Amino acid sequence: MESSNYNEARVIIRARNEHEALPMPLLLLADPDAVVIERYAALCRWWFADDGNEIIGVCGALERSSGAWEIMNMAVLPRYEGQGIGSRLMKGVLADLDDEGALEVVVCTGNSSLSALAFYQKQGFRMEAIELDYFTRHYAEPIIENGIPCRDQIILRRRQMGTHTPKRPIILSHFQASVSVRIAQIRDAGPLIRMKRRLDEQTTFMLLEPGERMMGESEQRDVIRYALRSANSNIFLAEYSGQIIGYLEAMGGKVMRNRHSVYIVVGVLQEYANRGIGRRLFQTMMHWAEDRGVQRLELTVQSTNERGIHLYRSLGFHIEGIQKQALIVDGNYVDLIQMSLLLSE
To answer: N-acetyltransferase domain spans which residues (predicted)?
Structure first.
């Protein structure tokens, strides 16, 4: 075994500097897919274990919503494993997040990552859920650890204790305070359909490709009128500086046997994504649904939309099924994940 020449006093745990390069070989130890890493790397905050000569440990955390964080990557150079570097790094990260008012921290790992499962539980995380066949769906090459096929994702969560008072209170940013969520009115038909067409051009996570949305302003007006008159349907808009930046359509069943169920479509303009808008739309809708006696909320999401899946899961949605190769996006087959939430549970 190669000697690490480890000097505990020399190693410091620090936040990554603004323009400091990420140690990709180290990140790949925890996540073997460079493409997946590129998707989240720029969105994360990063911490390093630095011995003065090289980065020997790394941890990246992504704020999914206000106060809710996820550990996206955590790795220590193999020759430094078993020497307490990982524990020091994780404690430093959690302390910084606690100082900023984090309410919960989530981490996901594989069923075959036995040492990681033990490590995170020692850091105060508890197993909360299992997402079956996650790694089979998302990774092209099979992953084997400890002689065990890595198929399922284990979700662990560390919640802030109720007795803790954050050192810095959570304060809404000027942007968050300036965003209003309201019910769509007839006059919103034109701005809403234009926003949807713009969203079609910005992301592949919506069903329609650019140019395929044939609904015009008059048809959108009819949909809004129907929702306003319906007992179990509604359309919610997120508005900022007079502009519609997000929407959520909750359309209820039309016959007696499914009137208790609502199907959801949601979209937020990309320049406002990852700023809590989707969560606010859902929270407003869920209060309305409870008032209307709605029992079941359901939606579908592309399996590649990791941010969306994490949002829905954090709101209490569960995966019910997978429609294999349901869509073709940019020439590739993509699965659709069916998710639901029962409001009485």
So the answer is: 1-144, 195-344
